[in-house]
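Chapter review: from sequence to fold.
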Amino acid sequence: MTPRFDAVGLVVSDMAASVAFYRRLGFPFPEGAEDQPHAEAAPPGGVRLLLDTEDTIRSFHPGWRPPTGGGRAALALRCDGPAEVDALYEDLMAAGYHGELKPWDAFWGQRYAVVQDPDGNGVDLFAPLAGE
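The token string follows.
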């Protein structure tokens, strides 16, 4: 048997805020997910995003405490092109989310930006530069 990568799980402090953020990035959470203690989205590409509230984790691991500070996890989302990186970044800033790194042309050949989800986890937005 060979394990295969299937999902990324995040522990969230506010399910509704997290579902709204990730829906804005195109994750297809089902209707009503914002009211549940566990939610899953399966976007194209085969890797699911799983969200669990802190209370859900405590229900099966009573001694668990959430890590403090940001940067506990990061997701990287490939965009269709450099213009989409810029547009998504601007959309998230206009909606009041925190931008960690404004879009820039990275020396490794990508348009790159970093935003934070409602729990301070990094979400990298990137796309190959033209001709890459």
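Two observations follow directly from the output. The mean pLDDT is 90. DSSP finds three helices and seven strands in the chain.
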